[in-house]
Design brief:
Helix content: 25-40%
Strand order of the largest sheet: 6-7-5-8-9-11-10
Number of strands: 15
Mean pLDDT: 79
Shape: elongated
Low-confidence stretches: 1-8, 139-150
Largest sheet: 7 strands, mixed
């Protein structure tokens, strides 16, 4: 019901008002990109100014008449507002325009429904859609105000609206229970990684900033990456090995957007918690975007909402290949700590600087020395090889191995603890 979408685009009239009060205005260019991402075919774009929204139609009566004429002339199938409409405003507009009316939240939900691929992703989208739909159930049932009676069926009955609400509540409860299982599984995985001291690095950022392209560049994966809004919806995780750091879990997350519907933040809590529990956030920024500063601010707002604002963060200014004079570089604070990296995930220019910056932020005290291993130290030798801590090995005539170690001290201590070996008992070459 929720995921079957027509192949062809729908003729759409877009409406954007500049309001002189209230929240920060939406970007009309981004709005058009959202409609195109949803498969819509914009045939007209109506703009205007208003002091405040009309309580009944959101737009004034004059603008409503203009909209009616445009819809009729273009035989539009849907009118999409770049704003949040109340359920009554949606119903009143549909009655006047005689076509479907969609607000910004409904539009983003539709895009998410198309992008969802995994079972968890589809559940999350359906949950958000059901919560959104629950406030808009009156439409479509005016002809069934109360179920019909008849011989053997008379009684107080239940209105069709009440039936739908009850079914929705049951479905929402069932989805929430399933997602709670997913959440507990993710929490179990996080605890396992914490026990093994493997840091998690999450890519976050505004939608279409290039997170998936960068993820593929870092991990050598082939995650779907496209120049469109919300190309990535389902989270992807890969284990990689970084020099001077060791094993790291890299996570690609869903892109953020201005005024991300709260229903989506709630529905995608299990996914977003992955970012909220990261060791380091890589905030990917489209360096070539005109609204770069605004996009950064919107991402910071969402990070605040999911409780990730205080995590260590490294800004990644991506797409420098689209800028004239930008060179790959690392920006540092007064203490010399990396705070930003300028690179191009598409061409790979500056990718080595990202590895260097992440290693500086995550790297702990490194042990670079030669360790003596006796024949009876086979379990330790195997564990060090598994951790890829041995750079080179040779043997003396008496059978003692000389291994050149390069490993974070924290990883070595974890290995020793698992084998119940004391650090002071190790024998180092002179």
């Amino acid at each position: 019901m929720f995921f079957d979408r027509p192949e062809s685009g729908e003729l759409a009239v877009l409406v954007h008002l500049n309001l002189s009060h209230g929240q920060e205005p939406e970007d009309p260019r981004e709005f058009e990109e959202l409609v195109l991402s949803a498969g819509g075919d914009p045939v007209a774009f109506i703009t205007g100014k208003s002091i405040s929204p009309n309580a009944k139609f959101f737009i004034g009566t004059g603008k409503l008449q203009e909209l009616q004429a445009v819809v009729a002339d273009n035989k539009a199938e849907v009118v999409i507002f770049n704003h949040t409409l109340s359920p009554s405003q949606e119903r009143n507009l549909e009655k006047e325009l005689q076509c479907r009316v969609l607000d910004r939240t409904g539009l983003i939900l539709d895009i998410f429904a198309q992008r969802a691929r995994t079972f968890e992703g589809k559940l999350q989208v359906e949950l958000a859609q059901l919560r959104h739909m629950s406030t808009r159930l009156v439409r479509g049932w005016t002809h069934l105000e109360r179920q019909k009676g008849g011989i053997g069926l008379r009684g107080p009955g239940e209105t069709q609206l009440e039936t739908d609400r009850r079914l929705l509540r049951n479905r929402i409860t069932m989805i929430e229970q399933r997602l709670e299982k997913v959440r507990s599984q993710r929490e179990q995985g996080r605890r396992s990684r914490q026990r093994s001291a493997i840091p998690t690095v999450s890519l976050v950022g505004y939608t279409n900033a290039g997170k998936s392209t960068l993820f593929n560049r870092i991990t050598g994966s082939d995650v779907y990456a496209e120049n469109q809004l919300f190309a990535t919806l389902d989270p992807t995780m890969r284990r990689i090995d970084l020099a001077d750091v060791g094993a790291v879990i890299m996570a690609d997350t869903v892109g953020f957007i201005s005024h991300l519907p709260h229903k989506l933040v709630e529905a995608f809590r299990a996914t977003l918690e992955e970012a909220a529990n990261s060791t380091l956030l890589l905030h990917v920024i489209d360096a070539a975007a005109d609204e770069r500063i605004r996009n950064i601010e919107q991402v910071e707002l969402v990070l605040e909402e999911i409780g990730a604002a205080k995590l260590p963060q490294l800004k990644i200014y991506n797409k420098i290949d689209l800028l004239d004079a930008a060179e790959p570089r690392i920006d540092r604070d007064d203490a010399g700590k990396p705070i930003a990296v300028w690179l191009s995930a598409q061409t790979g220019v500056g990718a080595e600087l990202l590895d260097q910056a992440v290693a500086e932020l995550l790297g702990t005290e490194m042990i670079v020395a030669q360790l003596l291993l006796r024949p009876q130290d086979g379990r330790l030798r195997a564990a060090l090889y598994e951790q890829q801590a041995i750079a080179e090995e040779s043997f003396r005539d008496d059978g003692v191995g000389l291994v050149n170690l390069r490993v974070p001290k924290s990883d070595l201590l974890r290995i020793l603890s698992a084998l119940r070996i004391q650090f002071d008992d190790l024998v180092w070459a002179e």
